[in-house]
Amino acid sequence: QVQLVESGGGLVQPGGSLRLSCTASGLLFRNLVVSWYRQGPGKERELVATIGIGGNGRTLADSVKGRFTVSKDNARNMVWLQMNSLEPEDTAVYYCATFGAWGQGTQVTVSS
Fold it and tell me: Three-state DSSP class for 6?
């Protein structure tokens, strides 16, 4: 079965950091482009970051550029999203996604 599972979300203060992880079963990240999306309260789902098949070709949304980084370890079949300098606007459910598959999401809440 194909399954993507996100973890690492939680409650952090503004300016804090979180590291989200995405693990996959039933598919190989080494063959796939993987993306992070987020959906805030009352907002549409938006693309946050994308990482290429080999871990290169990284892209970030302008809203998170300079604060977030995305990385990939094909040997471990894992993708991470390092989030620094978090702002209340970053509050959302974060999803890991690849071609035809989505995780269940992990909640990130940025609040004092």
Answer: strand
Helix, strand, coil percentages for the chain (3-state, nearest 5): 5, 50, 45
* Closest to 110 (Cα-Cα) out of 93, 68, 59, 5: 93
Find all residues with CB under 8 Å of 44, minimum gap 6, and list them.
none
Tell me how far apart the terminal alpha carbons of the chain are, to the nearest angstrom. Answer: 40
- In this structure, how many other beta carbons lie within 10 angstroms of the beta carbon of residue 112? 8
Task: In whole angstroms, give the CA distance from residue 54 to residue 41.
Answer: 33
Question: Tens digit of pLDDT for each residue in 65-104?
Answer: 999 999 999 999 999 999 999 999 999 999 999 988 999 9
* pLDDT score, position 1: 87
Q: Which of 39, 19, 18 is nearest to 92 (CA)?
A: 39
Contact criterion met (CB below 8 Å) for 103 and 5: yes
HSE of 80, CA atoms in CB hemisphere, 13 A: 11
